[in-house]
Design a protein that fits this description.
Among the domains are: about 55 residues, Acid Proteases (Cathepsin D, subunit A, domain 1), CATH 2.40.70.10; about 260 residues, Reverse transcriptase/Diguanylate cyclase domain (Alpha-Beta Plaits, 2-Layer Sandwich); about 150 residues, Ubiquitin-like (UB roll) (Roll), CATH 3.10.20.370; about 140 residues, Ribonuclease H-like superfamily/Ribonuclease H (Nucleotidyltransferase, domain 5, 2-Layer Sandwich), CATH 3.30.420. About 35% of the residues lie in helices and about 20% in strands. The protein has 34 helices and 37 strands. The strands form 11 sheets. It has a 5-stranded mixed sheet with strand order 21-20-19-22-23. Strands 26-25-24-27-28 form a 5-stranded mixed sheet, with helices on both faces. A hairpin with a 5-residue loop joins strand 29 and strand 30. Helix 31 crosses helix 32.
């Protein structure tokens, strides 16, 4: 649904359209419920159409010729390019010999041995009634003969039903005739799903022996209408029909299985399959394939095909089915079936299928790329290395980011079309003979050729290709070959139907599968591969460096021959001499650990390196650092400090240990990507660790169990590292900082307008570099830089115009035309315009104020949504003298939290308050809070109940904090309000008050920290 509440409709890809006057590309809007195809002004303009009205009926023409509009589904587009199937020259003979088997001579069929079908509804289904769409007079007149004919045949009957779905007349191409189509989507939603057993066209022809090369193709006419519908299920498919001429008004419904019903193909396919089971048994000399209502009969000789065809027509007539004589292809060497051309035991893509793909223009959206790959993917069996050719296009299928069609994409797009035009003929699989699968892997793509022997030759049955998943793509070449074989063997099973298969690859794979490496793949994945490959029907032939799969066109720099086991040993780790067995001799022994935990809603982290008796290095880490990142940083620092030395490093982190020993080599192979193909976490830390691994002279990284209470040296060293890391989390950040020399600052570049404003200043000076200063030493910024400076301050504070000017005037810079700049910045700030309330006209009131900082506080709880880390409340303290604010995220709104903050935060920093004011909330009137106030001698003043104005200062601060959080969230897109809270506190602590001073200045006696190093470069 769109923003207006109206239904949104999709566009097709750009299709090639023949307008009679020329060909154009055009995208069509898909509106399934539209009663008639509509021609937009854009397409009418392209065809140069002329619309005239004669005898009340509009006529559309171009070049004085009528225009005929053909509507069809994209799946059937290839039929536009299909040559007309020529009627069999001897069809009259078959019509006369078997009159009851043809729809042209026997009329509508009725399956005699199939009972009426009962449709099962879902348990929660209720009747649905969809109004009939308005029908044009022409469309209604077009479907009237069909409706009357179906009523006369008893297929449509009157009914009164709570169910109703609309009728959609569809115009037949090239005629003024219409056929009725019912929109049953709402009924389909309420009917139970049944498992679809319709054969897969992908492997249906695998059951056709290649030596049976005489074919007959039959298409059953009105197949679904051959099955009866049970009277209890007939009301489900009712529709509204009005025919005043015939005196008929009301609802009609179907007594036969309707078209458009989701389960109709499966129901009919199973019924016909059961009815023809006896024919298959009695005629083993022919093969009968069935895809819903399309039948293919094949025999080894013409005589077998003729006899089988006669028997099949007799069987169909006895069962009550009717075939279409117009579409029949009887006893031919070459036929078209399911979009394939069959001849001599081989199959081709039809020219219509090829032209459908070739006519597709270059995509302009990710959806169009997916449509192209799906359409071309139907033909992938005929395209050697399809996955390799399509590899550049796969990243474009994702909707993220801006769509960019580069030259390499066009090259891949054209290569697929070119390969399709030269598609070879493929032999039909013979399931009585074994198969041979040649496999190779290049650039993360598995490629294979499935073949069968014919005398001394091997004939291709299919070209297989598939992209490896991101995990397998990061393995060494030998292990990638195992993944490639497993994937292609699984795909080949769809064609071999479980027949024996021999695998030939340029690697010694069988030994690796039976004795897999212990570092590269999980047990679950290896077990899956072994279940596919270590079976009786899969045989590994000796490795072949050159085979049909390796000879598929592809540039490569990899060596052809190698020792797989030796290669795996070499590619196991980042550093060849890295071991997990402690070194002996004169070596150092260090222990590393990282710690990360949450304190009052803030994640504290630290890392440490110890030798068991003393601390080598310890440091706190930036807030929010995870435990895994801390472990990596600790191990990296130990490696750097041990440069040029021999050392044993113990860690209890499996993550850091595996990164050093195993994952480093994997990341080297596939890049810094996860198994899902996304960028890994802690990328910079991992890169630093992999680089630091080469610094020590000799190195062993050993994993030891963590949190052990044993007294051996290793356990004690690990305990010390853990203890020091936790202590370091609350200490000083000692991470080494890289200092870069400062470049000399260039002078300011002033414009003519800037000089005019500068000259208005009473006294100013200019340095040799060209920078101007006021008499009080403030640097004058050019208008552009001044605007950026004010914008930066506003992004941090979101102050209003008045307070923003006051804050800028306290800085070491002079901003030209400051009032106008500040007003413009505030007015153009989207978060401020969305959040700020209209100014109040109520005069300011009076409030109590402390005599010095920290003497008088107002305190209140406010709820902040959504909760983060379990913190849903904010405890706010406001010093009434200076306006200084302290705010603490809390999980609960209790008196214990209030007392704890007063003792741990307010008292150590500001001393014991003399007065605390609050409302009558439970956390403030509780015995804990009042008892603490009594012990410390605090005068706790409870304000008037149900009157927020009594706590006006803290209540106004709650609103300011929430407004600023909302602005920062809108501006940054960050929903973690705890992470944004420090910026909010910065704003409220540096907002000038009624005397022009900020809380920071009143508390510390100096200007706020918004000077040179923060904003200007």
């Amino acid at each position: 649904m769109g923003a207006t509440g109206q239904q949104q409709y999709p566009w097709t890809t750009r299709r090639t359209v023949d307008l009679g006057v020329g060909r154009v590309t055009h995208s069509f809007l898909v509106i399934p419920e539209c009663p008639a195809p509509l021609l937009g002004r854009d397409l009418l303009t392209k065809m140069g159409a002329q619309i005239s009205f004669e005898q009340g009926k509009p006529e559309v023409s171009a070049n004085n010729k009528p225009i005929t509009v053909l509507t069809l589904q994209l799946d059937d587009e290839y039929r536009l390019y299909s040559p007309l199937v020529k009627p069999d020259q001897n069809i009259q003979f078959w019509l006369e010999q078997f009159p009851q088997a043809w729809a042209e001579t026997a009329g509508m069929g009725l399956a005699k041995q199939v009972p009426p079908q009962v449709i099962q509804l879902k348990a929660s289904a209720a009747p649905v009634s969809v109004r009939q769409y308005p029908l044009s007079k022409e469309a209604r007149e077009g479907i009237r003969p069909h409706v009357q004919r179906l009523i006369q045949q008893g297929i449509l009957v009157p009914v009164q039903s709570p169910w109703n779905t609309p009728l959609l007349p569809v115009r037949k191409p090239g005629t003024n005739d219409y056929r009725p189509v019912q929109d049953l989507r709402e009924v389909n939603k309420r009917v139970q799903d049944i498992h679809p057993t319709v054969p897969n066209p992908y492997n249906l022809l695998c059951a056709l022996p290649p030596q049976r090369s005489w074919y007959t193709v039959l298409d059953l006419k009105d197949a679904f209408f051959c099955l009866r519908l049970h009277p209890t299920s007939q009301p489900l498919f009712a529709f509204e029909w009005r025919d005043p001429g015939a005196g008929r008004t009301g609802q009609l419904t179907w007594t036969r299985l309707p078209q458009g019903f989701k389960n109709s193909p499966t129901i009919f396919d199973e019924a016909l399959h059961r009815d023809l089971a006896n024919f298959r048994i009695q005629h083993p000399q022919v093969t009968l394939l069935q895809y819903v209502d399309d039948l293919l009969l094949a025999g080894a000789t013409k005589q077998d095909c003729l006899e089988g065809t006669k028997a099949l027509l007799l069987e169909l007539s006895d069962l009550g089915y009717r075939a279409s004589a117009k579409k029949a292809q009887i006893c031919r060497r070459e036929v078209t079936y399911l979009g394939y051309s069959l001849r001599g035991g081989q199959r081709w893509l039809t020219e219509a299928r090829k032209r459908t793909v070739v006519q597709i223009p270059a995509p302009t959206t990710a959806k169009q790329v997916r449509e192209f790959l799906g359409t071309a993917g139907f033909c992938r069996l005929w395209i050697p290395g399809f996955a390799t050719l399509a590899a550049p296009l796969y990243p474009l299928t994702k909707e993220k980011g801006e769509f960019s069609w580069a030259p390499e994409h066009q090259k891949a797009f054209d290569a697929i079309k070119k390969a399709l035009l030269s598609a070879p003929a493929l032999a039909l699989p013979d399931v009585t003979k074994p198969f041979t699968l040649y496999v190779d892997e290049r650039k993360g793509v598995a490629r294979g050729v499935l073949t069968q022997t014919l005398g001394p030759w091997r004939r291709p049955v299919a070209y297989l290709s598939k992209k490896l998943d991101p995990v397998a793509s990061g393995w060494p070449v030998c292990l990638k070959a195992i993944a490639a074989v497993a994937i292609l063997v699984k795909d080949a099973d769809k064609l071999t139907l479980g027949q024996n298969i021999t695998v030939i690859a340029p690697h010694a794979l069988e030994n690796i599968v039976r004795q897999p490496p212990d570092r590269w793949m999980t047990n679950a994945r290896m077990t899956h591969y072994q279940s596919l490959l270590l079976t009786e029907r899969v045989t590994f032939a000796p490795p072949a460096a050159l085979n049909p799969a390796t000879l598929l066109p592809e540039e490569t720099d990899e060596p052809v021959t190698h020792d797989c086991h030796q290669l795996l040993i070499e590619e196991t780790g980042v550093r060849k001499d890295l071991t997990d067995i402690p070194l002996t001799g004169e070596v150092l022994t260090w222990f590393t650990d990282g710690s990360s935990y949450v304190v009052e809603g803030k994640r504290m982290a630290g890392a440490a390196v110890v030798d068991g008796t003393r601390t080598i290095w310890a440091s706190s880490l930036p807030e929010g650092t995870s435990a895994q990142k801390a472990e990596l940083m600790a191990l990296t620092q130990a490696l750097r400090l041990a440069e040029g030395k021999s050392i044993n490093i113990y860690t209890d982190s499996r993550y850091a240990f595996a990164t050093a020993h195993v994952h480093g080599a994997i990341y080297k192979q596939r890049g810094l990507l996860t198994s899902a193909g996304r960028e890994i976490k802690n990328k910079e830390e991992i890169l630093s660790l992999l680089e630091a691994l080469h610094l020590p002279k000799r190195l062993a990284i050993i994993h030891c169990p963590g949190h052990q209470k044993a007294k051996d040296p290793i356990s004690r060293g690990n305990q010390m590292a853990d203890r020091v890391a936790k202590q370091a989390a609350q200490g000083v950040n000692l991470l080494p900082m890289i200092e870069t020399p400062k470049a000399p600052e260039p002078g300011r570049q002033y414009t003519l307008e800037d000089w005019q404003e500068i000259k208005k200043i009473d006294q100013f000076s200019e340095t040799p570099e060209g920078t101007c200063y006021t008499s009080d030493g403030k640097e004058i910024l050019p208008h552009k830089e001044g605007l950026e400076y004010v914008q930066q301050i506003h992004r941090l504070t979101h102050l209003g115009t008045k307070h923003l000017q006051q804050l800028v005037r306290t800085s070491p810079y002079h901003v030209l035309r400051l009032p106008g700049v500040a007003d413009s910045v505030v007015k153009h700030c989207v978060p401020c315009q969305l959040v700020n309330a209209n100014p109040s006209r109520i005069p300011p009131g009076k409030r109590l104020r402390g005599s010095h900082p920290g003497a008088h506080w107002e305190v209140d709880f406010t709820e902040v949504k959504p909760a983060k880390y379990g913190n849903k409340y904010l405890l706010v303290f406001v010093d009434t003298f200076s306006g200084w604010v302290e705010a603490y995220p809390t999980k609960k709104e209790t008196s214990t939290v209030v007392a704890k903050k007063i003792l741990e935060e307010i008292f150590p920093r500001f001393g014991i308050p003399k007065v605390i004011g609050s409302d009558n909330g439970p956390a403030f009137v509780a015995q804990v809070s009042q008892g603490l106030a009594k012990i410390l001698g605090i005068d706790w003043k409870l304000h008037c109940a149900y009157r927020p104005q009594s706590s006006g200062q803290v209540e106004r601060m709650n609103r300011t904090i929430k407004e600023t959080l909302t602005k920062l969230t809108t501006e940054t897109g960050i929903n973690d309000w705890i992470a944004l809270l420090p910026f909010v506190l910065f704003r409220v602590r540096n907002t000038p008050g009624q005397f022009g001073l900020t809380p920071y200045e009143l508390l510390y006696g100096g200007p706020p920290p918004v000077g040179r190093n923060c904003f200007c470069t």
